[in-house]
Amino acid sequence: MGVLSKRVEIATSPCPNDVFLLSGLILKRIPTSLNLEFHFADIETLNNLALSKSYPVIKASFALYPRIEETYQILACGSAMGYGVGPLLVSRKKANLAESSCLKVALPGRFTTAHFLFDHFYPHLTERIFLPYHQIIPALIKGEADLGVLIHEGRFVFAQYGLTLVADLGKLWEEKTKAPLPLGGFFIKRDYPPHLKGEILSLFRKSLDFAWEHKEELYPLLKKYAQELEREVIFSHVETYVNNYTYRLEGKALEGLRIFLKHLGLAFDPQLHLWECEDGIP
């Protein structure tokens, strides 16, 4: 009788950047003795699953990390961060943000980085509703909200729906901090065996290498999970959110994390908070 393989559950978003990253593993094109199971959910559902410690490996917002850092470490591969990647504040009609505090704002989740940024720059706009990210544009069109904070594919298509850009929250953050903006990343439970954490990190990097080498083949897979189905939108999404920081957190990426988490009250320590050892030796 053969040896049973280790079962590892990975919770991720269905967004093109995450599916692209994990494509080699989802398609079983990367050899591994692990039995990987993938679970897909929107980012705020993932944040709540992380709060409940539901999965050993999970995608979540960096704004959530101070709440989960006792349970999880940041996996050094898989992050969405950089310059020009931030959430966009849009409106369905002209609005004066400085003079009006009664505007209703739709946001993609209470624990998201998008909400943190919005609250940081527009704390006086307190009438907020939280929706799955793909429901924000429809809510604006129906008049259920005056403003919306868009992430993922919505950033690339809002003008097609007659919506107007009010502010680029990522740009505001970059101008203030001079650092790349950390949006979200993959987190792995601290109590996982070191050799297993190292193997998972290695598999993530091999999967990302596979994705870049087979990019054109991946459109059907990305389309299967995406909210916006146009090829150009999907690959614009990938090219925006998948970069050198996705492959490895180092240099400016670590400084960006330090600055961001400091604003959330957490002193970032790479040795304590980051898992970056593929050989399993911390």
From TrEMBL:
InterPro entries for the chain: Menaquinone_biosynth, MqnD
Record-linked Pfam families: VitK2_biosynth
Pathway linked to the protein: Quinol/quinone metabolism; menaquinone biosynthesis
GO biological process per UniProt: menaquinone biosynthetic process
GO molecular function, one term: carbon-carbon lyase activity
Catalytic residues (UniProt): 152 (proton acceptor)
Record's protein name: 1,4-dihydroxy-6-naphtoate synthase
Organism: Caldimicrobium thiodismutans
Gene field: mqnD
